[in-house]
Amino acid sequence: MAQTIARNFTIRNMLLAGILLMLAGDFMFALNDAMGKWLVASFSVGQVVLIRSIGAFIVLGPMIANQGTGKLFHMDRPLLQFLRVVATTTDTGLFYAAVVYLPLADVMSFYMAGPIYVAALSHLLLGEKVGWRRWLAILVGFCGVLIILKPSTAAFSMSSGFALVGSIAFGFAIILGRLLRGTSDTTLVTWQTIGTLIVGGALTIGAWRTPSALDFGAMLLLGVVSCAAHLMITRALKLAPASTLAPLHYTLLLWAVVFGLVFFGDVPSPRILVGAAIVVLAGMFIFHRQKVVETEVPPENVPKGVN
């Protein structure tokens, strides 16, 4: 009896720790996004990405030393590793390019469609079976994206295009991460950071502006914050079920609205809020249906109206 109580107590503590780490990690990602928007107002996207990548090695350095540099060069499926670096670099670069002109909440609304893209791409690239309910949710989610995008000649902007393509690259990165789940987090994050470092350096040519000590420190901090956020979320997923943590990821959108309002005076339009709500609900339903299928829950245990 005592052992059972102790075990349940440990499980509850792990679950609570996972939830708190997920919330903290998402907050850190949102803070990273707000800091990035502030910095790209004064410096080129390439310069911000370059110095941010250098800052990330403040966190990655000890991890690489602990793992050993040799493991960085002994990877399975190098082509997929390269494609993932391309996807994550595209995702990062286009995100910062989009927030130069768009409010944080607008850009984050596009990125919240990640689970929708992943569901569609999983069927096309991984051969995973996607039932009609998830396909319906995917279509509804795309409608939400179109509401946010408002693709008319009068309203469509290059910045919206950056956010859309960047969010699709984000979905590809998740898919490739699934295929490379046997590769350590340290190796994956190191190579994606090297990718952004190289691209940022190339984009900085002819666009360098000498930053003050404060600005340089802020760009280095950007890399530390993003790395810390990634590690928090990775640890959270090891402590608590993904089904419990997935809905918490949408707090990113809430923080984007808050930071955008407080620091930049951006008030999301009703169109953005409606489109974001559709995207979030569609994404949560897709995740729910995936868990139902994976665990083969009997029909009588599925909430009424879902199956």
From TrEMBL:
The keyword Membrane applies. The chain crosses the membrane at residues 12-32, 38-61, 82-102, 108-126, 133-149, 155-176, 188-208, 214-233, 245-264, 270-287. GO terms for cellular component: membrane. It comes from the Bacteria. Residues 17-149, 162-286 form the EamA domain. Keywords: Membrane, Transmembrane, Transmembrane helix. PANTHER family: ACYL-MALONYL CONDENSING ENZYME-RELATED, BLR4310 PROTEIN. This is EamA domain-containing protein. The lineage of its organism: Bacteria, Pseudomonadati, Pseudomonadota, Alphaproteobacteria, Hyphomicrobiales.
